[in-house]
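Continuing the batch. This is chain 6 of the set; chains 1 through 5 are on the previous pages. Same settings as before, nothing changed between runs. Recording input and output for traceability.
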Amino acid sequence: MAMRTVGFACTSAEDTLNPFHFDRRNPRPNDVVMEILYCGVCHSDLHWVRNDWGHTPYPAIPGHEIIGRVIETGPDVTRHKIGDIVAVGCMVDSCQNCDQCRKGEEQYCREGQKHPIGMNGVYGGIDVVDNTPNMGGYSKHLVVRQEFALKVPKGLDISKAAPLLCAGITTWSPLRTCQVGPGTRVAVIGLGGLGQMAVKLAVALGAEVTVISRSDKKEQDALAIGADKLLTSSNDKAMQAAVNSFDLIIDTIPVEHDITPYLPLLDVDGTFSMVGQIGPLPTTTTLPLVYGRRRITGSLVGGIRETQELLNFCARKNILPDTKTVAMQDINDVFKELEKGDTHYRFVIDMSTLKAD
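Output for chain 6:
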């Protein structure tokens, strides 16, 4: 039978998040049921509840950085057992049969592209059997097919690991796609939640890493997490000196902005990867692209295999995001802080603070 549970939801774009009782779907033979222990807070959660992308169904429960404990398994489940600590990121399903799924790129599932957010998301997606909207991780329980529940390696601090399921994999994927390793010159624009993960991961892969920021006030923060230097984007002389300096630039800025000043910083055949903003860009020019064979790309999260690779890598290298643990009832204040846009850490909700009554 369906599981009655509780989460925090909003009922309109103007509403705050408040306690909301609802039913999780009936577990199927291939499902695991998990008690959610921790859930990260992402800037995308804020966009989702505010309906910034224009397709949020209400009531809406966000949350796509989930760590939990398995409390029930279906009869066909072979990957997990009761008591296992597992993780769920942005996806909860895919067709498993298309060319993208077969090569481990479920985030680009051909069937998933029919969903509002371009994949069958933990929120924003639609259940493939009963066509009901998926509800996210700001809740007490989650039901998910076993293939999308990742194994959390021993030694990884589960109170801090949740943001790896979004901020971590969002920056890991372009690093791996561009084959970053020793000697690769990587720049990261912005040192927020995404930016700090991009720096830590690029450093661990052996790259030479530069943080690009509007001012030098984050220089010590950048150096403290392993960056080699900071480049101030408001310093025209420094920007001119940095032309042709990077093989990869990861742009983590989550709001509309002009990318034109950054493109000449790429070397020939360099890649500008956008992982923060979803939406329109101001008018730019193709000149630096044509004259340097440079390219602009976007990148979503990684597939299940790549996300498991990330979790294992972070456990081996002891890489964790900088986090601040918060209570569920404080989520609306957390969203206000996110709107200010000046935090370098990721918020993580301790879901034990969410009471069933």
